[in-house]
Every structure is written in C-alpha cells, then in structure tokens.
Amino acid sequence: xxxxxxxGCVNFIMQRDPGAVADLPLAYQLVIxxxxxxxxxxxxxxxxxxxxxxxxxxxxxxxxxxxxxxxxIGVLLTTGHALWLGAAATGLVWYTHRKLGLDLLG
Length: 106
Hints:
The protein is mainly α. It contains five helices and no strands. α4 runs antiparallel to α5 (64-100). The chain is elongated, with a radius of gyration of 18 Å. The model has no long low-confidence stretch (mean pLDDT 88).
C-alpha cells in the first residue's frame, strides 16, 4: 500500500509541475487543466493521506486509521467524479448518435 500511495504522490506532484504537464499528450493536459479544484484537493488527500496512513500503520500508531479513512474519502470523491464524467460522456455520445440516426450496435 505504501508503494502505491508514494507513486500516487509522485503523480500528484508531476501534475502540479507545468513543465512535466507540457510533456504529456494534449488529451492528458486538457484533463488536468479542466479538473475542478475540489477534485485536485481530493486527489491530494487520497494519495498523501494514504501514504501517511501506511507509514503510521507500519509504526503501529493509532492515528493510522483516521489518516486512511480520510484517504478513502479522497479516493471515493475522485473516483465518483471520474465515473460521473464517464457516464456523462457515454450518454452524450449515445444521444448524439441517436439524433444523427446512427446505429451504435450495428
């Protein structure tokens, strides 16, 4: 768990670096630039809270549980946002094709 969350922390830091973002494909740049602030904050809480919780768990501290719980809330928020966007995009594609008279399954 610690390795996974540390990689998430590295991912978060890279997404905050304009130079690193400029090297990404345009689609990724647009996703990062268009992400609401609350989702970025939830992403921060998810990965840094998870890393902190894992370290505290290795140290057998009772404070590991609240840190991991906050991390879980961050994960649920970011995942919920991603799923909502995916569902909205799928519905938009279906609606557009239906209005144009295109058969999605055929």
